[in-house]
Amino acid sequence: MRSSVNRPAAVAAVVAAVVVTALVGFALSSSRGTAAPSTASVVSASARNAPETYVAMGSSFAAGPGEGPIVDRRCLRTGDNYPHRVAEKLGLELVDVTCSGSTAAELVTGPKHDRKHRRPQVEAVDQRTRLVTITTGGNDIDFIGRVISEACTNMRALGMSHCGSGRMPPPAPGPADYAELEASLVSAVDAIKARAPQAQVVLVDYTPVVALDAPPCRLLPLMPWEVEQQVRITEEMSAVNQRVAERTGAQHISTQALAGEHSTCGPQPWVRGFGSKMVFHPNAVGKEGIADLIVGALSV
Question: Whole-model pTM?
């Protein structure tokens, strides 16, 4: 591991050198204000015309906002997200109910204030469902929101950006938060199994955002202790997925080993960095990379 003595100075130097040309593109609330109602995106498999379906669930890391064609504005769901790529590779009919801003609890309950237009995601599962993927949990513990808040706080302190509200970043999640997330995911998998006992359920980790062994860079203006905290949170989120998989018989696809290579400051980042639209969310390469991970795991 690198010495922590030089990293603060290095990070500060990198951050101070940044000239921000765009505000952070994390604007879910404003986008929802004028958008059309959310519906499931259904894509038929042209190659095999398979009668079996693949249901994709989760939040923005599965919905794929930031680049690519928008197929559902309310959920900022794109037509090139990893579920679309998986469906194409496997020749399955896709029912995509991923939605930016959703939580793990909402997979079963649906959003509290939008029941008319957005039903619980598990309702997309039926007897035809062969595969279900789930990528969620970050909104339950404010993972990406915390990274954005920390980055904006650092940039505002240096006078390099006015993004964010100026509020201090939220505290890190505790054991009770992870326990609640785990319970929500177990409930979701159980509900899926009840609706489609033969379906294969796959819990997919978030695309890597932070890594201890990646060098500091202008795309991730965090201080060393903030990087370390976010790494711990990422690892615990993955551990939650693993425990849920063990409890329910689902499959877990981890991205932890890929963080050094594909995090924001890695040599081949799978997420967009600070100053981008939908900052710290998967880019096109990341969407393809996650899709390949899933298809590879299912073929083993």
Answer: 0.84
3 state DSSP class of 287: helix
Three state DSSP letters for 5-63 = CCHHHHHHHHHHCCCCCCCCECCHHHHHHCCCCCCCEEECCCCCCCCCEEEEEECHHHH
Task: Give counts: helices (H), strands (E), the chain.
Answer: 10, 8
Smallest Cα–Cα separation from 141: which of 110, 180, 107, 109? 180
CB 42 within 8 A of CB 93: yes
Task: Please say whether the dihedral angle defined by the alpha carbons of residues 96, 102, 104 and 107, taken in this order, is positive or negative.
Answer: negative
84 vs 42: CA distance, rounded Å: 10
Q: Using an 8 Å Cβ cutoff, are 57 and 121 in contact?
A: yes
192 touches 108 (CB < 8 A): no
Instruction: Tell me the CB-side half-sphere exposure of residue 57, using CA atoms within 13 A.
Output: 31
Q: Which of 21-35, 104-118, 139-153 has the highest mean pLDDT?
A: 139-153
Instruction: Work out the burial of residue 257: count CB atoms within 10 Å of its CB; fewer than 13 is exposed, 13-18 middle, 19 or more buried.
Output: exposed
Residue 164 pLDDT: 65
Pick from 30-44, 145-159, 198-212: least confident: 30-44
Chain segment 112-149, per-residue pLDDT in tens: 766 556 789 999 999 999 999 999 999 999 999 999 99
**DSSP code per residue over 160-179:** S---S-SPPPPPPP-HHHHH
> What is the bridge-based pairing of β-strands 41-43 and 93-96?
antiparallel
DSSP state of 113: T
The C-alpha atoms of residue 100 and residue 136 are separated, in whole angstroms, by: 10
Of 38 and 168, more confident: 168
Alpha-carbon span 234 to 178, nearest angstrom? 11
Task: Say how far apart CA 81 and CA 284 lie, in whole Å.
Answer: 8
